[in-house]
Amino acid sequence: MTPTATQQALPAQAPPPSLAELHEINAGMQAFQVSVLPSGREFGVNQGEAMLAAGIRQGVGLPYGCKDGACGSCKCKKISGVVLHGPHQSKALSDEEEANGFVLTCCGVPFSDVVLESRQVTEAGAFPIKKMPSRVMLLEKKSHDVMLVKLQLPANDGFAYHAGQYVEFILRDGARRSYSMATAPRPSPVLTALTTTPVQAGADGAGVTPTPTPTPTPTLPVPPAPGHGLELHIRHMPGGKFTDHVFGAMKEKEIVRIEGPFGTFFLREDSAKPMILLASGTGFAPIKAVIEDMQLKGIDRPATLYWGGRRPADLYLDDWVKAKLAEMPNLKYVPVISNAVPEDNWSGRTGFVHAAVLQDFPDLSGHQVYACGAPIVIDSAKTAYTTEGGLPEDEFYADSFITEADKARA
Questions:
Q1: 3-state percent breakdown (helix, strand, coil) of the chain, nearest 5
Q2: Which helix (H) or strand (E) element contains residue 277?
Q3: pTM for this one?
Q4: Cα–Cα dist 346/277, whole Å
Q5: Three-state DSSP class for 356?
Q6: Between vectors from CA 401 to CA 167 and to CA 236, what angle results, nearest 5°?
Q7: On the CB side of 16, how many CA atoms lie within 13 Å of its CA?
Q8: N or C: which end of the chain has fewer CB within 10 A?
Q9: Mind listing the domains of the chain with CATH numbers?
Q10: For every one of its 410 residues, what pLDDT tens digit does the chain have, with 9 covering 90 and above?
Q11: What are the two backbone dihedrals, phi and then psi, of residue 284, each rounded to the nearest 5 degrees?
């Protein structure tokens, strides 16, 4: 796809400059400032740097997913400024959307100060991104094409993250593969007591515990104990460089390199709205982490999980979900199968999982939706829920699972 420049602030009669021409025009100029409304967050962007990379580097929580111009999760409204896009898929940002002032921060490079509108920007204090070795503790095949992989992190290094975020495997040739963490962070036993009372930041940034209160309230996340393990759900993509290895030569005790945490998919604890948790296939992994996080923190908001698969075996942790129902009265579960055959003896819901939600909840105007899985499911759900169900667009939080084949089309 040929890069195109947004037209605002350029003479109407002049053709848009190329990326190389804009680099030459701006050579030697100082970094530009990006301001994000309505949060008021600001950050600088280096010469030729994409806005998302700059935001991540400076702890500004812009929404994003694939970081490769394929999913559209980072799409924001540009209020002012000049932005040139690198290669991206038209489904992530169409020509019409770009003409109407929308940009992708993952591949959008500013050539002036820029003002964006993004209501999903998170607060300051994002967890630091780390590169680290980890050891494969467990390989457990959960279905014919899903492997549960458990990683042991370094014993001397705490790894803090939000339930729902993902890590990237760094392969020997430098290629990367992204997988969501399927477990919530477990706080250190020494620090667990802090989560029963609000933690307020002191003047020096240290935590100050006020007088205990019998009512639990949302707290700042507590970093997990060093050596905390991670669980990942990896689907086999035949011919895939990494997944062929996972399902073939990978052995327990193997050392791998990972980096994270990444992503802006996690539970917004400042809301009391009931939730729809939507998962297709291994999109269940980050949803599982969110469910665990809710239980650990005593969050009792009503939540209904819709998990979709082609065949019943695709719901590879169905027993785990059913066990959680007995422990969490606020959690409901609706499994949905799209391609059941007679030998499955399936008597539950059938059809498209995103459609089942609207059948049960035709009015989503008072809900939040957390959706993970195949891009077609996420895109269909967002369109249907916002246009037919009345869901506010900024209450749809998603992690679209983009494959390397999807990225190659960008």
A1: 25, 30, 50
A2: strand 275-280
A3: 0.74
A4: 22
A5: helix
A6: 85
A7: 16
A8: N
A9: 19-117 (3.10.20.30), 130-188+223-262 (2.40.30.10), 275-408 (3.40.50.80)
A10: 444 444 444 445 555 555 555 555 554 455 899 999 887 888 999 989 999 989 888 878 788 877 888 888 888 899 999 999 999 988 889 899 999 999 999 999 999 999 998 866 655 456 778 889 999 999 999 999 999 999 999 887 778 899 999 999 999 999 999 999 999 997 654 444 333 333 343 333 334 433 333 333 444 444 444 446 899 999 999 999 999 999 999 999 999 999 989 888 999 999 999 999 999 999 999 999 999 999 999 999 999 999 999 999 999 999 999 999 999 999 999 999 999 999 999 999 999 999 999 999 999 999 999 999 999 999 999 999 999 999 999 999 999 887 666 666 55
A11: -70, -25
**Amino acid letter at 184?**
A
97-130 burial, b at 16+ Cβ within 10 Å, e below that, comes to bbeebbbbbbbbbbbebbebbbebbbeeebbeeb
Quick one: DSSP state of residue 370? Answer: E
Residue type, 70: A
Retrieve residue 185's tokens.
Answer: 């962070």
Question: Helices in 102-252 by DSSP H: which ranges?
Answer: 189-192, 241-246
**215: Cα separation from own chain's centroid:** 30
- How long, in residues, is the chain? 410
Q: What are phi and psi of 63, to 5 degrees?
A: -70, 145
